[in-house]
C-alpha cells in the first residue's frame, strides 16, 4: 500500500509538467587536466541533428507494428585549439511527455559551457507519444502500483532513460572527434531531464540497457554497447531519484552507493510539480553514501526557476564552481 502511495504521488506530480569518499580517485593536478575559463571566451560552433542512435517506436505498447526512430543531438563546440576538453551532456525536461533539445533552457546552458571550454551536447530522446519498447517486468509493476492515468507516463521513463544512456555511450565513442577527455564528463538537466541525468550518475552500466534483448529491439546495435557510461558530476535542476528507485524496486538493486558521481541539487522549496521533498530525499541518499554533493534550496521558488540566484550567483555559475571543484579543473 505504501509503495502505491509513493508512486501515485510522484507521478501525479510529474503529470503537472508537459569525494573523496566515493571510491573514485580525484585526478591529480597535472598537465592532462583540462582548462576552462571563468568568463565566456570562445565562439561556439553548433552542429545540429547528429544521429547518436536509433530506437523503436510502436503503434501500441510493445506491439509488433514498429518503426525505427532516429535519435539526434546538437553539438556545441568551443572554437579553440585545445585538444584536452571536458564535456557536458544536457537533457531537456517536459515530464517525459514533451520538450526537445532546442528549448531555450538547454541551448542557453550549452552555449554557457561551450563558450568557457566544454564541449556541450543537447539531446533528444523518445517521449511518451513515441511508445518505445518497455521491459516485460514494467507492465505488471505499473498495473499494480499506479493509477491507470499514470501508466503511460511511467512507461515513457524506460525508453527515455535507455536513450540518454545511448547518448552517453555515443559521447564516449566519439570523444576523440571532439578532443574530449573522458575523465571529465558531466551530465545535467531540468525536471525529467534531471531525473535521467541523476540516473546516469547513479545506475550501473547495464541498467536501462540490458532489460530488453537485441532480438526484441535490434536498434540496440546502434547504441555503442561496448562503450563506457561513466560520468564524473551531475547537475540536477529540480529533479528526483525516481528512475533509480524504479531499478531498485523492480530488480532488487541498491544503486545509491559510494561509487555514484558527485551531484549538485537545485530545487525550489515551493515546487508543486516535483516536490521539494524529492530533492531532499535525493540529498539524503547522498548523505547516506558519503558521496560529495551540494544542495541549494531555492527559497520560495516553484518549478523551473532558471533565473534564480543564490547569494547573487546564477544557477549556471553555481554549477561551474561545482564542476571545477569536483573535477579539479584548471581555470583561467
Task: Describe it.
The chain has a single domain (2-331), classed as Rossmann fold (3-Layer(aba) Sandwich). Helices cover 32% and strands 23% of the residues. The protein has helices at 2-14, 104-114, 138-145, 148-173, 192-202, 242-251, 276-289, 315-327, and strands spanning 35-36, 44-58, 66-78, 85-91, 119-123, 180-190, 233-237, 263-268, 293-298, 309-310, 313-314, 330-331. The strands form three sheets. The protein has an eight-stranded mixed beta sheet, with helices on both faces. It has a two-stranded parallel ribbon with strand order 1-12. A two-stranded antiparallel sheet has the order 10-11. Strand 2 and strand 3 (66-78) form a beta hairpin. Helix 3 runs antiparallel to helix 4 (148-173). The longest helix has 26 residues, at 148-173. It is globular. Residues 1-6 and 15-30 have low confidence and may be disordered.
Outline the fold blueprint:
Blueprint: H1 2-14, E1 35-36, E2 44-58, E3 66-78, E4 85-91, H2 104-114, E5 119-123, H3 138-145, H4 148-173, E6 180-190, H5 192-202, E7 233-237, H6 242-251, E8 263-268, H7 276-289, E9 293-298, E10 309-310, E11 313-314, H8 315-327, E12 330-331
Helix pairs in contact: 3-4, 4-5
Amino acid at each position: 500500500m505504501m509503495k502505491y502511495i509513493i508512486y501515485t504521488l510522484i507521478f501525479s506530480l510529474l503529470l503537472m509538467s508537459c569525494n573523496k569518499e566515493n571510491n573514485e580517485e580525484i585526478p591529480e593536478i597535472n598537465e592532462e587536466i583540462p582548462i576552462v575559463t571563468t568568463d565566456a571566451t570562445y565562439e561556439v560552433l553548433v552542429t545540429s541533428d547528429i544521429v547518436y542512435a536509433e530506437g523503436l517506436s510502436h503503434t501500441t505498447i510493445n506491439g509488433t507494428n514498429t518503426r525505427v526512430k532516429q535519435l539526434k543531438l546538437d553539438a556545441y563546440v568551443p572554437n579553440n585549439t585545445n585538444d584536452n576538453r571536458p564535456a557536458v551532456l544536457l537533457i531537456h525536461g517536459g515530464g517525459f511527455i514533451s520538450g526537445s533539445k532546442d528549448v531555450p533552457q538547454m541551448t542557453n546552458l550549452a552555449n554557457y559551457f561551450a563558450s568557457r571550454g566544454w564541449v556541450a551536447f543537447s539531446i533528444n530522446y523518445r517521449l511518451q507519444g513515441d511508445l518505445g519498447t518497455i521491459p516485460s517486468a514494467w507492465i505488471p509493476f505499473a498495473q499494480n502500483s499506479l493509477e491507470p492515468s499514470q501508466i503511460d507516463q511511467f512507461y515513457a521513463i524506460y525508453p527515455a532513460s535507455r536513450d540518454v544512456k545511448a547518448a552517453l555511450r555515443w559521447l564516449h565513442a566519439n570523444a576523440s572527434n571532439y578532443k574530449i577527455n573522458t575523465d571529465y564528463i558531466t551530465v545535467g538537466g531540468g525536471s525529467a531531464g534531471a531525473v535521467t541525468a541523476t540516473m546516469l550518475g547513479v545506475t550501473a552500466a547495464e541498467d536501462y540497457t540490458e532489460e530488453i534483448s537485441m532480438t526484441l529491439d535490434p536498434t540496440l546495435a546502434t547504441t555503442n554497447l561496448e562503450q563506457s557510461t561513466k560520468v564524473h558530476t551531475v547537475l540536477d535542476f529540480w529533479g528526483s531519484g525516481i528512475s533509480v528507485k524504479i531499478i531498485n524496486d523492480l530488480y532488487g538493486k541498491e544503486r545509491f552507493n559510494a561509487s555514484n558521481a558527485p551531484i549538485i541539487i537545485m530545487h525550489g522549496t515551493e515546487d508543486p510539480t516535483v516536490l521539494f521533498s524529492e530533492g531532499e530525499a535525493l540529498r539524503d541518499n547522498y548523505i547516506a553514501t558519503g558521496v560529495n554533493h551540494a544542495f541549494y534550496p531555492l527559497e520560495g521558488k516553484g518549478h523551473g526557476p532558471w533565473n534564480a540566484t543564490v547569494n547573487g550567483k546564477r544557477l549556471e555559475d553555481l554549477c561551474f564552481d561545482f564542476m571545477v571543484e569536483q573535477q579539479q579543473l584548471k581555470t583561467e
